[in-house]
């Protein structure tokens, strides 16, 4: 019986069981993250200049989604505090919407390279005019006109620097940057994976990484990066020896 036939006989009440009630859902194997190696990142940073360098130094140093990069405006950035408020995403269809999930509306605490990148970018676009956009909200049909000064602009350096990047144009910038650096081509999403993988390898708390990436909790971090994390089990011993190589003089206080 075909799928349509199953649905028809159920709706016609010839059968009472739901058509797919006893069918196990297939799960696709999640692709293993393929982060940049540190020497590849160094090569990329040496090959790039200006906005391209700033964009990927920020992306790899903070882990935002590419739609969040495209939608980032200067009023979301606090350079003095070293924080960025991710509260807007640009879809592939060109709509400004809230982040993917409620947890995606978040404050990112910037690591030094990401903060340095935004400071450098501010000298390029921080003084440029704002752009009118339509911001859509989670409530159905609710939207408002806003004016934003975007951090990254597609035709920077020309008389018309453009209003903002599309997600496809950011993908194109990634491909061009990787090609210019002469490193192995990866999907653009690996900029986000690189942030997560490097943070995990450095011993960062998965819950902290999850909050930075906009996940509800650490479960998604474990699910996405579990296969990659296993490769670093041996390094965990060195990390623990380094941090726990001596016992505290006084026992830890407990409540």
Automatic annotation (TrEMBL):
Domain Tyr recombinase: 31-238
A single GO BP: DNA recombination
Keywords: DNA integration, DNA recombination
Transmembrane spans: none
InterPro entries: DNA_brk_join_enz, Integrase-like_cat_sf, Integrase_catalytic, Tyrosine_recombinase_XerCD
Domain of life assignment: Bacteria
GO molecular function terms noted in the UniProt entry: DNA binding
PANTHER family: PHAGE INTEGRASE-RELATED, PROPHAGE INTEGRASE INTR-RELATED
Protein name in UniProt: Site-specific integrase
